[in-house]
Amino acid sequence: LQFILELRVLDSLVKSNLISEGGGGGMGAQKKGGGAKVSEDAEEQSRQRLQAILLADSFATKFRPVTLERPKVLLPIVNVPMIDYTLAWLEYAGIEEVFVFCCAHSVQVIEYLEKSEWYSHPNLVVRTIESHKSISAGDALRYMYEQQTETSQIQGDFVLVSGDTVSNMPLADLIQEHRERKKKDEKAIMTMVIKQSKSSSLTHQSRLGTDQLFIAVDPLTKQLLHYEEDKIDHPRGSICLDKSLLDSNPSVLVCNDMQDCYIDICSPEVLSLFEDNFDYQHLRRHFVKGVLVDDIMGYKIFTHEIHSSYAASIDNFRSYDTVSKDIIQRWTYPYVPDINFSGNRPLKLGRQGIYRASDAVQSRSADVGASTVIGYGTKIGDGDKILNSVIGNGCSIGSNVVIEGSYIWNNVTIEDGCEIRNAIVCDGVKIRAGAVLHPGVVLSFNVVVGRDFVVPAYSKVSLLQQPTTEDSDEELEYADSSSGTADHMSGLNLQMEPKASELGPDGAGYIWEVCEGAHDEEWKHSVAPIPKDKLSEFTQAIDDDDTDDESVIPASGELKSDADSINTDMNDPNDDYYYFEKEVEGTVLRAVEENIKVDLVTLEINGLRLSYNMESADCAGATFYSMMKLAVDTPHSSASELYKTATSIISKWKELLGFYVKKIDEQIEVIMKFEEMCQDSPKELGPLFTQILHLLYDKDVLQEDAILRWAEEKAGADEVDKVYLKQCETFIQWLKEASEEEDEDDEDEEEDD
């Protein structure tokens, strides 16, 4: 399936390039035949270069203290700077000219681009625009408008993105769709890209760590009518809509299961609106909301939902972790580690999703597990265990080191006996022997962790002292820095004078304190899994919610002006379940490889359950699927060998499966999942249906009531759907007879009493 998806994505990108090459500007290519006359508008559009504005500053502080020393767009994600993913995608999608707007650390960004292949790329012109006065996205676009009046650089519609965007979606058709809409309605000035992504009902966060998004759109035209991305304080996830929406729209589709990809197709009027409204600072909180409530100008914003393509913006450390995993698991193809897409040196892809550089040195006794990336010039010592992590270039890792779920950047030295879990370690860091990094730790550049020192969970450590005042406003990241390091440090009043290290006598660095009221933000935006205490709170909340009323807004629904009903069948939830199932599969695989304790595996699956807003039955089906897929993927030459492997896996991990099959419905879900797998693989798994069912019964995973209820429900199905019911008829009959005998024995005992 993944291979097919990669081919489809590659095909769409090729088509996108062919369109742009064939049409001169990417949009005016005419179909063969017919001899139709091309209109003047079409000719004008075909002459327009496909352009993009790339904001190389996030105007945020979520990546501090790292971004005090290096701009966010140059931070590596799977060993490639973020901005390279964005530029590579824009080039493949047919964009011909990109204006890179630089604010914080502008010198670093410009120098990097000048030395990269982008400045001499044959298909993409990259121009940098530098401003030291812009402290927000709004200021940046106002500056672009001022430049526009002098140079007319923006020729027409343009793509607006940030330099932390990772995507493989085609753009040519979307730009054409925007232009065609603009022809019919001159007030249509923007098209926003969205993607389905169910948020947790408890944390109100998406898998990217962003706050829950509520939007309302016209289901026919896809016009955006309401947008709310701030924290929702209304009880039980409710939202208040203006009644005028229903007065002026026959129906309104309300969704809280959408992700804003922060990819916009804009008309030139967008720049002029920022010029006219100096209070527009934030693209969504100010500009989008301002347009939606402005009845005088009447401008409109529309949405475009993508399905098979990938698009995400890296907003915080949790989204950094999520997007990194998506890249490793190849959802971002062709922007993956084994393909050269921006001058990066491709790695070799091996089994279990392990990417390894050709010159990486690994001890024979070292264990490198699934979903791991090893960079160039890196050395891995004896007895090391590295799992689900990214190791950069030029790293030196000593002996008996444990690295799990972490991101080690370039030229890092890790001495013997260290333990690093769910942490980010920046360039040049040295971790001395025996040191331990607890989950959520971020070590900024060149920090030294002392021998045997334990860095507490969620600590942020830097050679720079923490500013005395830290404003959370999004406009401050530039104010905290400028084009040079000296100016940057004086503006922040940061100090680096000698002081006793907070990381041990032989360490170097300062542990930043968590700002008051920001403790929840630490674990919500961390690369670490949800803490155990928070997980317990959420699990208890789920149990409490089961007894409450069900007056909760569904994931999406259509509100009609002539009825109060909500149609909840607007979106298919299976997409989220597929991602959930893949994550559970990876968790089970790691558990088997590392022989992790069942309670820890259960904890991780429960975290996924909350993240994807799944039920216990979903966990049961996904866990059993993962076990059987592991059995199938294990080499075997006959059905008997496959059955033997499955028996071994189920016997060892039945306690894990048993945690999610305490109810009859959950057990039936397991049977239905296995039936589905057999239908997908009739030759390999089909013949084993009855044997595996019997095994699950013998191991007390399934009760006879669940099996008999499944059989009763299947009895009324079409003949084609009763293949596996017929296969296990003898077993079902045996269960019925045994059940009847038990009932008779119970009746005899009652009579004796």
Automatic annotation (TrEMBL):
Record's GO cellular component, any one?
A: eukaryotic translation initiation factor 2B complex
> InterPro entries from the xrefs?
ARM-type_fold, eIF-2B_epsilon_N, eIF2B_epsilon, LbH_EIF2B3/5, NTP_transferase_dom, Nucleotide-diphossugar_trans, Trimer_LpxA-like_sf, W2_domain
Can you say where in the cell this protein is located? Answer: Cytoplasm, Cytosol
Q: Which CDD domains match?
A: eIF-2B_epsilon_N, LbH_eIF2B_epsilon, W2_eIF2B_epsilon
W2 domain segment(s): 574-745
Tell me the domain of life: Eukaryota
Q: Which Gene3D superfamilies match?
A: 1.25.40.180, Hexapeptide repeat proteins, Spore Coat Polysaccharide Biosynthesis Protein SpsA, Chain A
What are the entry keywords?
Cytoplasm, Initiation factor, Protein biosynthesis
Query: Could you tell me which residues belong to the region Disordered?
Result: 466-490
List GO molecular-function terms, semicolon-separated: guanyl-nucleotide exchange factor activity; translation initiation factor activity; translation initiation factor binding
Q: Subunit details for this protein? A: Component of the translation initiation factor 2B (eIF2B) complex which is a heterodecamer of two sets of five different subunits: alpha, beta, gamma, delta and epsilon. Subunits alpha, beta and delta comprise a regulatory subcomplex and subunits epsilon and gamma comprise a catalytic subcomplex. Within the complex, the hexameric regulatory complex resides at the center, with the two heterodimeric catalytic subcomplexes bound on opposite sides.
**Which family does the record claim for this protein?**
Belongs to the eIF-2B gamma/epsilon subunits family.
| Stated name of the protein | Translation initiation factor eIF2B subunit epsilon
Organism per entry: Capsella rubella
